[in-house]
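Hi R.,

Here's the input for the glutamine complex you asked about:
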Amino acid sequence: MCGIVASCRCPSLSQHLQHGLDAIKHRGPDGSGTWVSQDGSIGLGHCRLSINDLSPLGAQPIHNADSIHAVVNGEIYDFDRLRDICASEHGYRFTGHSDSELVVALYQIHGAPGLFEHLRGEFAFVLVDQRPGSQRVIAVRDRFGIKPLVWTTVGDRVVLAAEAKALKPLGWQPEWDVQSITDSGWLVDERTVFKNVQSVKPGHWMEITDGRGIQMHQYWDADFPDKTIVETRTIEEMVQGVRERLINAVRLRMRADVPIGVYLSGGIDSSAIAGIVTHLARTENVKIGSDKATQVACFSVQFPEASGYDESDIADRTANWLGIEIHRHNADEQRLADDFVDAAYHNEQHHMDLNSVAKFALSSLPQQQGLKVVLTGEGSDEHFGGYAFLTHQYLYEPDLAMPNILADDTKLRGDRAEMSHSIEARTPFLDHSLTEYVNSLPPSTKLSAPRRAIVEKWILREAVRPFVTDEVYRRRKRLLTREAVEELGFVDYAVVEAALESAFGETPDQVAFRTLNYTGGWVAIGQRLGVKKATVEESNWSWV
Ligand SMILES: Nc1ncnc2c1ncn2[C@@H]1O[C@H](COP(=O)(O)OP(=O)(O)OP(=O)(O)O)[C@@H](O)[C@H]1O
Ligand SMILES: NC(=O)CC[C@H](N)C(=O)O
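And here is the predicted structure with glutamine in place:
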């Protein structure tokens, strides 16, 4: 993934664009280029982390013979097939072999918004159409907001970039947006922590024309079918449906002209990715990126054992089972403290925990090994029912909250942690063809109770079972553990244990279910707010 900057309506642009690119060189250390329109009013800049077509023909900005210019950050998957269609059915003549050139080709063939439905992957791009009669600039962001794209105005200019720091050489003067910080606007809407700097929203595109100024349009949204309609697919068909789509999402993301690695934790998501990559390489001879790699390299963060967060022993056993190598980063307190400032600078926002700092440091490992791309398990929890605190919503009104949760991927996790060390993170779980299928599944398949206990991400566990260890398959992130319930101070765990036995199954006990629902809510709130353990003597409360 690369860095892009763009500016519309500005004299003497070229130098400013280059300085903007210098500020985000970590996003693209392999080369850089700028383009300024003949009248000097519009400019594009790109710094490249070259992944597909490493030759100069893959350099950007991209131009075609028809006065269309673009800078593209990210990856368009399935591009070999799409390029063939553009060439054979539409006679489009490509100059190089990068996936990014496809954006210009598809725009010329289908226009906007027509091209968006053909784009699969994570991307942010700015495209300038100078054809007589259709002059405009468009700025586009992928469906889940995996790749960042921010913009502001400086005088009468619109300036855009992958990271806000690149806007400074283009004239932006940073100011805090205290309102956005206090009302969490930076997280839930298009605002950032900086005044007047906005993100282009996921699944949206911005259109800038002389006549109409700036217009925002949406081209995609998560779609949730009516789940009161009786499901006709069998469980096995649905498990198979998830498996096929996930395998395909991974397969498409193994295509690169550079080697690819995997971020591996002890959880089911990254373990499944590592397992599927290994399976495809061994049984179908799918290349892991370029020819160089014969087996996938995994990268793992090891936390101090006393922290209670360390899962590296599980990751080790997975790597052992798959016969793959594992590289480890030790994230002890000192390392986290050392990396805090750099991680915050790259993230350009605050975070609730130190995960982003650990992942910032983790990305130095693949860089040291000469890798440019890693696959990660991000995005699974939101789609497969991995957040136990949403239990009741899945069961009653399953998915109404989902679009909001998925508001903007870079705000929750970011690609910044990886890009800080020039690493592109690919997220197969955020393949829209997979998520559209998963959204169509009955909620009960995500949070099933086959043995009278809630099993988060049930259908995912079944779908990836052939690719993960039994340990990972059976491992649960349980909300209602004895420890968590006892920490409330006013709930008797024996009651919860009994309720777990009777709340599910063919003849569920409604009262037991309600007990679990209440207790689950208290545990979630208690953990999130750090609520002090209650003492029963404080009130007239008798044990629940
Ligand atoms: N300790 C770690 N070491 C290596 N990679 C990690 C680690 N923690 C998280 N990651 C990477 O970041 C992704 C998202 O992390 P998150 O904490 O959201 O985990 P998760 O949803 O529980 O996923 P998983 O099931 O893979 O642990 C993981 O899928 C993995 O690719
Ligand atoms: N790093 C990027 O954003 C990559 C752009 C393009 N996919 C390439 O391979 O060059």
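One thing worth noting: The chain has a mean pLDDT of 87.

Cheers,
M.
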